[in-house]
Design a protein that fits this description.
The complex is a heterodimer of chains A (642) and B (215). Chain A is 39% helix and 14% strand. Chain A is α/β, with parallel strands linked by helices and 642 residues long. The chains are: A alpha/beta (642), B alpha+beta (215).
Chain lengths: 642, 215
C-alpha cells in the first residue's frame, strides 16, 4: 500500500470536519444552555438516569433553551453522578453528587435566575474570576490526560463531537505516511503495551507487518477482568472513537483489513457504544471500503467474550474467538507469527490503541517527553479501596505511589493509617508503606514485586488483614483458572486451602514455608501468565507482612482483628450502662444477655462475631471491645433461665 | 539430522523434532503425561517434561521446544527435579490412589513417574483435595472415572484424530475441570465412533469401555 496524496485526503476530510464544526457552532449557539450528564456505567450506577429524568422534567416547565448531552466518565467516581452545566456568560461548572432534587434546583436557581448554587459546585471547568477552577485541585493539575482527554466531555454516541475536538485527524495524517514510517514512529515513541506485559507496541506491529502471510488481523483486547479495574470499560463507554482510530492506524500500518474488538458481554454499555461508533464511522467513510477515498479497507467487528478471566490472555482469547474453549497455548508460536485462524495477529489492549492517535498527531518526541525514559507516556489506574477520592486517574509514568495515593486521590479516609496497596489486580503484588516512593512504571513496579498489570490499584488501611487479602485474591485466581495446566489448576487451590486454614486459626508450623515453596514452583512451572503471576499476592504479603502470618499461625491471633475465627467481642462491664439495651436488639443470634447487676454480656458460644453490638453501642458508653486471640475475652456465664 | 547433547550424551534426531521426542527416541526418559508422538502442537499442560536448556534462564517444557544443532539439554538438574516433584505431588493430591483395584495397575503412567522420580504414591506435603465432581455417567459406550483423571487431554486429541471431530472435551474450570462429552445428559444425542482410541490413550485408566452389564 503506497502512501496517499496529502491534498486529496485533506480535501476529503475537510468536508467532514466542516460538518463537525457546523454542529458544534449550533450547539454553542447564543442563548443555548448545555447540560452534560456523565452517563457511563459509574454514573448510571450512582443514579445518573434519575438525575437526567429530573432535568428533563424541570426543563419541560421552563422557557430556558437547554439541551441535555449524555457524556462518558471523567474518572471521578467518588463524586458521581457528575454534571457539567454550560450556561452562556458563565464558565462551565462541574457539579458533584447530583440528585434529582439538585437537578431541579439547578434549573430553577442557575438556569433561570443565574445563581450557580455554590454549595453543590465541585469547580469550574476553566479558569475564571468567580468560581475556583478544578484545574487548581491536585487531582486535575497532576493528571495528564492523553488517553482519557475527551472522556466525560464529549457525547460518545456522536462521532462529530470527537472530530470537532481533533479526532480522526491522526488517521488522516497516518494515511499520508508509508506504513513503515508509522511503525517507526510508534517504535520511536517507546509505547509499551498497556495490557500489562509492557512489550513494545511498535515491535509487535513490525513482526506482524514483516510476516509472510498476506492476510493479517488486528485484535483489540477489551476483556478486562481484574476485580477493581475498569478503565477499558470507561474508555469504550466514554470515547470509543479514539480506540477505533487507533485500531485503524494499526491496521493500516501492519497491512490488516480485518480487526476484532474482543469485549466481555458483561459490559453491555461498552458493547453498545463501540458498535454504534463503528456504524457511525462507516457511515461517513472513516471505516469500511476505501477509507477517506484511499484504497485502504478496514472492517471492524465486535466479539463478545463470556467473561472468563483467562480469556484476557492473548492465546486463550484467540482460542475463544475461534469458538474453542478459552485455554492458553504454549508460545512460541506467538500470535504475531501464528494467531487467529493461523494468521499473523496483533493483539493490543484498549489503552494501547487509544494511545496511538495522540502519538501520530503530536509525534514520538512529544510522547517521549511524558513519563520516564524507559516507559514513556501515561498510565491509567483505577484507584479503589480505602481511598478518599476513588476513581480513574491518568498520570505520567514515573509519579510515585505516595503522590498518587495521598495527593491526587486524597489519602485514606477516617484518619486511618495506610497499610498496603495491591497493584496490578489479582496477579499483582501488595506493597507496604516503605514502597510508597516507588515510581509507577513497568520496571519499578515489577522490581518491587508488584506489577503494572492492567492498572488496578486497591488501597488498604490499617484494618486490612494481609493474610485475608491474599486469600481473597487467590480465591479469585483459583476459580478463574482454566484448568489446563497442573500448577495453576491444583497448585492455586492448595495455596487457597492453606490460606483459609490460617485465617480459620488452624495454621500449622511449616505452612508459611510451604506457601512460599509452592508459590515459587507455581510461578516457574505454570503454562501461562495467569498461573505464573497468581502466587504474587501470597509471595508479597509473606515477604512484607510475615509477622502477620506468624501471629495467625503461632499465636492464633489476627493483628488487624479481621479474621472472624480469631477474634471475640466482649462488653466492658465498667463502661456498660446499667439498664441500657441498645445492643440486645442488634444481635442476630440473641447472644447478649443481662448480667446479675443488670449490665450486658456476650455468650461466646453462640456469638457469630458480626460486630453489630459494637456499632449499636451508644458512643457515650462505647463499651464493646474486640480482641484477638479470642481467649482474651473474659468469660461470663449466662445465668440459668427462670 | 540434528545433533544435540542431552545429559552429556550426544544424540541425533530429525530436524523439527521436539526435544522430548528426541530424548524418548534415544532411550532417555523424561516424565510426561499429556504428550503423544502424533501431536503437531502439544498442549504442554502436565508440566512434567521440564528440562534445562542452555540459553534459557529457567526450566522449560521439552514437548514445546524444537531441537537445534548443538543444543545442550539437562534433564536431571536439581531445579528440574524440584518442579517435577511438585507437579507430581499436585497431580497425586487430586488422584484417588487405589492401585490394587485399579485397572491401570502396573501400566499406570503415574506409577512409572513415581518410580522414576523416587517418590511414593502417598501424599506428604499436600492434603488430599476433594473435587466437587458430579458427572453424568450416561455415555453410551464409555465410562469416566474423574477421581483418576489427570486431565492430560490425550483422549480429546485422539478422538479428534480418529473421528475428524472430537466428541470429548474439557468442561468447567479450575479444580472442577473434567472431561465431558457432547450430548451429556441425553443418550440419544451422544455420539461415539466406538474406536476406543481415547481409552487406549488414557495414561491412568480414567476412561474405560463401558461394560454392558455395569449400568
Amino acid at each position: 500500500m503506497n502512501q496517499n496524496s496529502k491534498e486529496k485526503l485533506n480535501g476529503v476530510f475537510a468536508s467532514i470536519k466542516a460538518e463537525a464544526d457546523r454542529r458544534f457552532k449550533q450547539m454553542k449557539g447564543d442563548d443555548r444552555h448545555n447540560i452534560f450528564i456523565g452517563m457511563a456505567t459509574c454514573g448510571l450506577a450512582s443514579g445518573a438516569m434519575e438525575v437526567r429524568a429530573a432535568f428533563e422534567e424541570a426543563l419541560s416547565e421552563t422557557k430556558v433553551n437547554a439541551h441535555i448531552i449524555p457524556v462518558g466518565c471523567l474518572g471521578h467516581c467518588y463524586a458521581e453522578p457528575l454534571v457539567i452545566v454550560d450556561k452562556p456568560g458563565s464558565p462551565p461548572i462541574l457539579y458533584h453528587d447530583m440528585t434529582p432534587g439538585k437537578a431541579r434546583l439547578l434549573v430553577k436557581a442557575f438556569l433561570e435566575e443565574g445563581d450557580p448554587v455554590f454549595e453543590h459546585v465541585l469547580g469550574a471547568m476553566e479558569e475564571n474570576d468567580t468560581i475556583p477552577s478544578v484545574l487548581e485541585f491536585p487531582r486535575f493539575s497532576r493528571e495528564n490526560k492523553i488517553v482519557m482527554a475527551n472522556s466525560g466531555v464529549i457525547d460518545p454516541e456522536d462521532v462529530y463531537q470527537y472530530i470537532e475536538r481533533g479526532g480522526y485527524w491522526a488517521l488522516v495524517k497516518a494515511l499520508t505516511l508509508a506504513p513503515e514510517e508509522i511503525i517507526e514512529e510508534i517504535l520511536e515513541s517507546g509505547l509499551r503495551g498497556r495490557g500489562g506485559a509492557g512489550f513494545l507496541t511498535g515491535l509487535k506491529w513490525r513482526l506482524v507487518r514483516d510476516a509472510r502471510e498476506e492476510d493479517k488481523i488486528i485484535i483489540c483486547n477489551a476483556d478486562e477482568g481484574d476485580p477493581g479495574a475498569y478503565m477499558d470499560r470507561a474508555l469504550l463507554e466514554s470515547n470509543p472513537h479514539q480506540v477505533i482510530e487507533g485500531i485503524a492506524i494499526a491496521a493500516y500500518a501492519v497491512g490488516a483489513r480485518r480487526a476484532i474488538i474482543y469485549v466481555r458481554a458483561e459490559y453491555p454499555l461498552a458493547v453498545k457504544m463501540i458498535k454504534n461508533a463503528i456504524d457511525q464511522s462507516k457511515e461517513i467513510g472513516l471505516l469500511g471500503k476505501g477509507i477517506l477515498g484511499t484504497n485502504f479497507d478496514l472492517d471492524i467487528s465486535v466479539f463478545q467474550g463470556s467473561g472468563a478471566f483467562v480469556c484476557g490472555e492473548e492465546t486463550a482469547l484467540i482460542q475463544s474467538i475461534q469458538g474453542k474453549r478459552g485455554m492458553p497455548q504454549p508460545r512460541p508460536p506467538y500470535p504475531s507469527q501464528r494467531g487467529l485462524w493461523g494468521k499473523p495477529t496483533v493483539v493490543n489492549n484498549v489503552k494501547s490503541m487509544a494511545s496511538i492517535p495522540p502519538i501520530i498527531e503530536h509525534g514520538a518526541r512529544w510522547f517521549r517527553g511524558i513519563g520516564t525514559a524507559k516507559t514513556p507516556g501515561t498510565a491509567i489506574f483505577s484507584v479503589v479501596g480505602n481511598i478518599l477520592h476513588a476513581g480513574l486517574v491518568e498520570i505520567p509514568m514515573g509519579v510515585t505511589l505516595r503522590v498518587l495515593i495521598f495527593d491526587i486521590c486524597g489519602g485514606i479516609p477516617d484518619k486511618k493509617k495506610f497499610k498496603a496497596v495491591q497493584i496490578g489486580g489479582p496477579s499483582g503484588g501488595c506493597l507496604p508503606e516503605t514502597f510508597l516512593d516507588t515510581q509507577v512504571d513497568f520496571d519499578s513496579l515489577t522490581e518491587a514485586g508488584a506489577m503494572m498489570g492492567s492498572g488496578g490499584m486497591v488501597v488498604m488501611d490499617e484494618d486490612a488483614c494481609m493474610v485475608d487479602v491474599a486469600r481473597y485474591f487467590l480465591d479469585f485466581t483459583q476459580k478463574e483458572s482454566c484448568g489446563k495446566c497442573t500448577f495453576c489448576r491444583i497448585g492455586t487451590k492448595h495455596l487457597l486451602d492453606i490460606l483459609e486454614r490460617i485465617t480459620r486459626g488452624e495454621g500449622r508450623e511449616g505452612d508459611i514455608e510451604l506457601l512460599e515453596d509452592l508459590s515459587l514452583d507455581i510461578r516457574e512451572g505454570s503454562l501461562c501468565g495467569l498461573g505464573k503471576t497468581a502466587p504474587n499476592p501470597v509471595l508479597t504479603t509473606v515477604k512484607y507482612f510475615r509477622d502477620e502470618y506468624e501471629a495467625h499461625v503461632r499465636e492464633k491471633r489476627c493483628p488487624s482483628m479481621m479474621c472472624r475465627a480469631l477474634i471475640a467481642y466482649y462488653i466492658d462491664l465498667e463502661a456498660c450502662a446499667r439498664g441500657c439495651d441498645a445492643c440486645v436488639g442488634s444481635c442476630p443470634t440473641e447472644s447478649i444477655f443481662t448480667t446479675e447487676d443488670r449490665k450486658k454480656a456476650i455468650d461466646q458460644t453462640s456469638c457469630v462475631r458480626c460486630g453489630e453490638c459494637m456499632t449499636s453501642c451508644p458512643p457515650e458508653y462505647n463499651a464493646v471491645r474486640k480482641v484477638s486471640p479470642p481467649a482474651l475475652a473474659p468469660k461470663i456465664e449466662r445465668p440459668r433461665e427462670g | 539430522m540434528v545433533r544435540l547433547v542431552v545429559d552429556n550424551r550426544q544424540i541425533e534426531t530429525e530436524e523439527g523434532a521436539t526435544v522430548l521426542q528426541a530424548c524418548l527416541d534415544n532411550g532417555i526418559y523424561i516424565p510426561n503425561l499429556c504428550y503423544l508422538k502424533e501431536m503437531d502442537s502439544p498442549p504442554g499442560s502436565c508440566r512434567l517434561c521440564l528440562v534445562e536448556v542452555d540459553g534459557y534462564n529457567q526450566p522449560i517444557t521439552s514437548c514445546t521446544i524444537k531441537v537445534k544443532e548443538g543444543m545442550i539439554v539437562k534433564t536431571n538438574t536439581e531445579h528440574v527435579r524440584r518442579l517435577q516433584r511438585t507437579a507430581f505431588e499436585l497431580l497425586l493430591s487430586v488422584h484417588h490412589v487405589d492401585c490394587r483395584r485399579c485397572p491401570a495397575n502396573r501400566s499406570c503412567e503415574l506409577q512409572r513417574i513415581a518410580k522414576y522420580l523416587h517418590l511414593g504414591v502417598k501424599l506428604k506435603r499436600f492434603e488430599q483435595l476433594e473435587r466437587r465432581v458430579k458427572i453424568v455417567q450416561d455415555h453410551p459406550c464409555l465410562e469416566y472415572v474423574p477421581s483418576r483423571c489427570v486431565l492430560c487431554g490425550r483422549c480429546i486429541f485422539m478422538c479428534q484424530r480418529e473421528n475428524g471431530q472430537a466428541m470429548l472435551s474439557f468442561a468447567r474450570r479450575g479444580l472442577d475441570t473434567v472431561i465431558s462429552f457432547f450430548g451429556e445428559g441425553d443418550k440419544a444425542r451422544a455420539t461415539c465412533g466406538q474406536c476406543y482410541a481415547c481409552v487406549e490413550a488414557c495414561p491412568v485408566a480414567a476412561l474405560l469401555i463401558r461394560n454392558a452389564h455395569s449400568q
